[in-house]
């Protein structure tokens, strides 16, 4: 019975992800990874500076959830406008870069060195996404 519950839960999550995001993609997986890493590095940076706050942490989680709501809206717009994945991917790339830059800022706040090639790559991705965004 327990095994059935696990399978049913996984199937339910997969169904919801497919409905909201058009399926589970490597870019969506990367975004989830970046969101989690950004949150962890943000907690560490706040802790290392003596600024850890449950209220700020809760607001951070809410902001992260809004990222995924925007991606769901973009997917629904793609479906309505028959533009397979364009808006969803654009928004996803933008937030991958944004979360990566935020992670690097958190690392700097915590006194860690920032790898410049990674920072440059994230800035380039974000700039490309913003270029497309401004054309619309």
From TrEMBL:
GO cellular component: membrane
Coiled-coil intervals: none
Pfam families assigned: Phage_holin_4_1
Protein keywords: Membrane, Transmembrane, Transmembrane helix
InterPro entries, A to Z: Phage_holin_4_1
Signal sequence coordinates: none
Main location as per UniProt: membrane
Transmembrane segment boundaries: 30-47, 56-74
Name of the featured protein: Phage holin family protein
Organism: Desulforamulus aquiferis
